[in-house]
Amino acid sequence: MEHLSDWVIEFKRAYPEAEVLVGAEIPAAVRTDFLGAEVGTAELYIKVHSSAEVSAALKFAHANQLPVTVRGAGTNLVGSTIPHGGLVLDVSALNRVLALDEDNRTILVEPGVKLCDLQALVESRGLFYPPDPAEKQATIGGNIATNAGGMRAVKYGVTRDFVLALEVVLPDGSLVELGSPCLKDATGLNLKHLFIGSEGSLGVITKCLLRLIAKPEATAHALIGFKSLAEGISAVNTLYAANLAPTAIEFVEKKVIAFGEQFVKAEFPLPEYQAYLVVTFDGKAESLPSQLEACRQAISAQHEIGFLPLTDPVVAQNVWTIRAALAKAVQASGVWEPVDTVVPLKSIVTLIDDIAALSAQEGVRILAFGHAGDGNVHLCILKDEIPLAQWPQRLERVLTQLYARVYELQGKVAAEHGVGRHKRQYFLAQVDPTELQLMRLIKHSIDPYNQFNRGCGYAE
Ligand SMILES: Cc1cc2nc3c(=O)[nH]c(=O)nc-3n(C[C@H](O)[C@H](O)[C@H](O)COP(=O)(O)OP(=O)(O)OC[C@H]3O[C@@H](n4cnc5c(N)ncnc54)[C@H](O)[C@@H]3O)c2cc1C
């Protein structure tokens, strides 16, 4: 290998803005994920500010076949930013908004732009970026690399549906533009889709052209309390059958709410119920009250419910703050494992019942919340008082049974968080061997030395 310290001197001379750290200088905070339970190793860390820096860094890594871990805000929950040696390429400072085209309703940004900043900017211009994953500090590049979902996927779709074009620096340092500003594109293979959701396994996304829509005039929410989670979940089908087109349908169990309430020091309304749906509608202001009423009528015809339109701003704020803080609240409470599984809509109730049985059988507490409207069930598996030494085996037993059941129900390991390192063994146990072989053939043709996120997700 070309001597690392000589190369660093040259690189810093050529790109004085880049932050470069080597060996022991690299802090643990950039060698882990949001959970922070595992910290990886790296020889080189570069925080880049331009595509040219990315390209130069990758040329060096390629020449020396160094493993590369791309890092955005590091909010992933699956260990996909835990390096196993080599280079950590931090793109969080590659964060300029390059062009907002209000006539075409597109925005061109660098990947390090935070979701919260993008949403605030476009909404200040009467525009709207619908993908809305709960972690607003995540970067747009990270959202694209994980094909992030979030609450509004029910009505608008996921991140993939709003990516028009990408600039990508490939593992050998060459640069390619994929996609176009056109809304329709049936011109050859649509390669941008390979990079969306690729979890940093194929190259570095350095520019993102995103589709925007007009900002909905108004939004209305209602909290619906149910006597059981299974009842709440089965009400989702009632909503769809009534053709009510909600923007979001979130579900949460009362026992999870307690974590959120304690964490953000606020009260959740309708405390007499065991489970909740939070339903959102957006559109013309005058149509929203009738949509909420139609929603109440459709669900109350089949279930005994508490129905609270969230018109009081303080109550609404409490509900959403608690909902948004759930993962962080559970994280603050101790050791846990996040699960981001997805099943076809008709199977959610079966899955929730099976999870309750599994929890009782294995003596492990499992909390559920998530995006009920698209079958995405988030679980928090809690270590509680289980001794740390026994936890990995106990957890593995639970997860093995859980994912086997998910696949029986035609579901998948990951709905929106990706596979990363933490879900890899369960993904590999279930994936069709031919599909896996195809994925690896594609990776090999783009990343022949398997440098990018090696040992992560589908990568060897
Ligand atoms: C409290 C909380 C709530 C969350 N809620 C949701 C939710 O509702 N929906 C959801 O989908 N996710 C959610 N997440 C997960 C996480 O926020 C998303 O996965 C997010 O998209 C990660 O973005 P990031 O910038 O933090 O990426 P990172 O964590 O830094 O990286 C994630 C992956 O993307 C790759 N990557 C990052 N940037 C690039 C790039 N420019 N080019 C190529 N590869 C890149 C990395 O190598 C890694 O594989 C949540 C996380 C937390 C902590």
CA-based shape: globular
Largest sheet: 7 strands, antiparallel
CATH architectural label of the largest domain: 2-Layer Sandwich
Q: Within the CATH hierarchy, at the fold level, what is the topology of the largest domain?
A: Uridine Diphospho-n-acetylenolpyruvylglucosamine Reductase, domain 3
Mean pLDDT, as a whole number? 95
Low-confidence stretches: none
Going across the biggest sheet, name each strand in turn.
Answer: 15-12-14-13-17-18-16
Instruction: Report the radius of gyration as a whole number of Å.
Output: 23 Å
Q: What is the level 1 CATH name of the largest domain?
A: Alpha Beta
How many domains, in number, for the residues?
A: 4
Share of β-strand residues: 15-25%
Structural class by helix and strand composition: alpha+beta
Which key features would you list for this structure?
Alpha-Beta Plaits, 4 domains, 5-stranded antiparallel beta sheet, alpha+beta, 15 helices, Uridine Diphospho-n-acetylenolpyruvylglucosamine Reductase, domain 2, Uridine Diphospho-n-acetylenolpyruvylglucosamine Reductase, domain 3, 460 residues
Structure report:
The protein has 460 residues and is an alpha+beta fold. The protein folds into 4 domains: 87 residues, Uridine Diphospho-n-acetylenolpyruvylglucosamine Reductase, domain 2 (2-Layer Sandwich), CATH 3.30.43.10; 118 residues, Uridine Diphospho-n-acetylenolpyruvylglucosamine Reductase, domain 3, CATH 3.30.465; 109 residues, Alpha-Beta Plaits (2-Layer Sandwich), CATH 3.30.70; 84 residues, 2-Layer Sandwich (Alpha-Beta Plaits). The chain is built from 15 helices and 18 strands. It has a 7-stranded antiparallel beta sheet, sandwiched between helices. Strand 17 and strand 18 form a beta hairpin. Helix 7 packs antiparallel against helix 12, helix 8 packs across helix 11 and helix 12 runs antiparallel to helix 13. It is globular, with a radius of gyration of 23 Å. It starts with a helix and ends in a 14-residue tail after the last helix. Flavin-adenine dinucleotide (FAD) binds next to strand 3, helix 4, strand 10 and helix 11.
